[in-house]
Amino acid sequence: MEILKFGRWTVLGPGTRTQDRACRCECGTEKDVRWQYLRDGRSQSCGCKQREEVAARMRLHRFKHGHSPSGQPYSPTYLSWMHIKQRCLYKGSQNYPMYGGRGISVCARWMDFQNFLADMGERPAGMSIERIDVDGDYEPGNCRWATRLEQERNKRTSLKYLYQGRERCLSEIAELSGMKYGLLHDRLKRHNWTLEKALSTPSRQFKK
Predict the structure, then answer these.
(1) Cβ neighbours of residue 194 closer than 8 Å, sequence gap 6 or more
(2) What is the pTM of this model?
(3) What is the pLDDT of residues 19-47, one digit of tens each?
(4) Kind and range of the H or E run holding 166
(5) End-to-end CA distance of the chain
(6) Rg of the chain, C-alpha, whole Å
């Protein structure tokens, strides 16, 4: 009896339905596959082939930029670099209107990750990249690694609240009051509480 093979599939015999064939993949997986999909090449494996190709591309990507933790495709520093390019260069990015859409760009030198790494160094834990001049580009001299508090203080769209005699951003108020940022943000932005009510209402009472 002739052995029929289609990609990684070996046909074992008739399938449960008349249009199917019982098949075994090279990885050992057995399942029914539509006969037409076998003949026209739409089904080459159980999915293991695609998974191996994706893994190979990720290994190649890691090899090319040479900067990834063990077992992870991208390092935090590399992710930061990818994100600044996305929001400045790709119109499909959700954040493009606030960056590339208003003229913010990435300098030519930083189009190469190795140059970005040499200029900025490793991204410290708990920090992300910030532009010192919020209307300037991503380039050496205008960027630094900053905490969320530092970034919110510098962010042009940050809302300010009067607290302890001066206007402060939300992160700073949370830090000074000892309240968790997420809870304070939720009370002010989601529930539209006043700052006084948000800070004075115990969290247990709020949950009720």
Answers:
(1) none
(2) 0.48
(3) 999 999 999 999 999 999 998 988 888 88
(4) strand 166-169
(5) 73
(6) 27
Per-residue pLDDT, 57: 60
The whole-angstrom separation of Cα 22 and Cα 28 is 13
| 142-154: b (≥16 Cβ within 10 Å) or e | ebebbebebbbbb
Two tokens at 108? Answer: 């030519």
Six-digit token string for 112 = 């190469």
CB 184 within 8 A of CB 191: no
- For 1-127, list the strands marked E by DSSP: 5-6, 9-14, 20-25, 30-34
**203/193 Cα distance (integer angstroms):** 14
Tokens of 157: 């769209």
Low-confidence stretches of the chain (pLDDT beneath 70): 1, 54-73, 152-159, 204-208
Q: Residue 162 CB: number of other CB atoms within 10 A?
A: 10
Residue 54 in tokens: 């994706």
Give the Cβ contact number of residue 79 at 10 Å: 14
Q: Residue 46, Cα to own-chain centre: how many angstroms?
A: 28
